[in-house]
Design goal:
alpha+beta; six-stranded antiparallel beta sheet
């Protein structure tokens, strides 16, 4: 039988490197990195590895995953080529390769952003590949490239026409980033591409920077993690780690303490407590724990704490179409989460 990629060229990744392309390290100016920090061992990571190791082996292993990472710049090049070295090569059977270890590209037009295309991952056995997107025409554009959700990136070079202009990208609103803490859903499982995680959608619509501290199976409300987050500069803290709590009793033992640690160091910070979006067997018990933390904070005089019932995110219509496995959201699920969460964030931040 004929290989479908020979029949339909659009079914294969574009790994060509055009003549006259100049590659630059993404760490060089005027490229601007958001949501990540540099690490000599892994290339990029989401929090310092020494802190991650103190939290748990799971967080330490997932810290190099570049979920929420972005690079922004402007150019009039009509082609963008990435030269990528991954830190490992993660593969899943329930999540698209682009979301796991691919990149995607948006044009920042002052509105909600325009999706241009994905830097698709060829079938590779090592950790290096190139991927190109043609923009068809030469004109100045502000661009955002979203990093993989479930893989580390050792190095990234961006290739543009040798004679192309290169400048700073569009800036986010002049405010501190939102910090999101939670489970695999927070990390982005199972969006088909990085730009479809709910935080990425909210950031595009509202032009607010963010840091993704979602850790698949490993966000368990540890005190060391609370202490680390409490020391970050942020405009809002958003947490929903109940998926990773072993049970409701564990959640009860950690949830309010986590809030209290954040609040002690950030007396005026908006803090949003969120319950699970899917239907785990003990959702009512877990939601009751989170709502109890919220009520206790209110009774103690906190006027800047908020609760979101995650069960409202998917809605009633076609609810069973919102996940890939009755747990992790697909793109429809993430879009609905972004709509609910983004509406509340807008209201809180004004």
């Amino acid at each position: 039988m004929e290989d479908v990629k020979k029949i339909d060229k659009r079914m294969s990744a574009d790994t060509t490197v055009s003549e006259g392309i100049l590659f630059r390290n993404v760490l060089e100016k005027p490229f601007e990195i958001y949501g990540l920090m540099q690490n000599d061992e892994t290339g990029f990571c989401r929090l310092p590895l020494d802190v991650a190791k103190e939290v748990s082996n799971g967080v330490y292993g997932l810290a190099p995953n570049t979920a929420g990472g972005r690079v922004r710049f402007s150019t009039d090049s009509d082609v963008v080529t990435l030269k990528i070295e991954l830190y490992g090569l993660t593969k899943f059977d329930h999540m698209a390769a682009i979301g796991v270890h691919g990149f995607d590209l948006f044009e920042d037009d002052g509105g909600e952003g325009i999706f241009i295309g994905s830097f698709r991952v060829p079938h590779i056995e090592d950790n290096k590949y190139t991927s190109s997107i043609s923009l068809k025409t030469r004109k100045m554009r502000n661009l955002t490239i979203n990093f993989p959700l479930y893989n580390g990136v050792k190095s990234l070079e961006i290739g543009l026409r040798e004679d192309a202009s290169l400048g700073e990208g569009e800036k986010y609103r002049d405010m501190k980033p939102i910090i999101y803490y939670g489970s695999s859903i927070t990390q982005g499982g199972c969006a088909c591409r990085p730009g479809n995680s709910y935080q990425s959608i909210i950031a595009r619509k509202n032009h607010i920077d963010y840091v993704n501290l979602g850790f698949s199976g490993s966000a368990k409300g540890e005190q060391r993690m609370a202490e680390y987050i409490a020391g970050l500069d942020m405009s809002l803290f958003f947490y929903d780690y109940d998926h990773n709590a072993p049970d409701a009793q564990y959640l009860k033992a950690t949830h309010y303490d986590f809030y209290e640690t954040i609040r002690k160091s950030n007396p005026d910070l908006p803090i949003v407590m969120v319950s699970a979006v899917n239907k785990m067997h003990d959702i009512p018990e877990r939601k009751a724990v989170i709502y109890s933390s919220y009520e206790k904070a209110l009774k103690n005089g906190d006027k800047n704490v908020y609760f979101i019932d995650g069960q409202e995110a998917f809605g009633d219509a076609d609810r069973d179409c919102c996940t890939v496995d009755n747990c992790h959201p697909n793109d429809l699920g993430f879009q609905r989460m972004a709509a609910l969460f983004g509406k509340n964030i807008n209201r809180i931040l004004g």
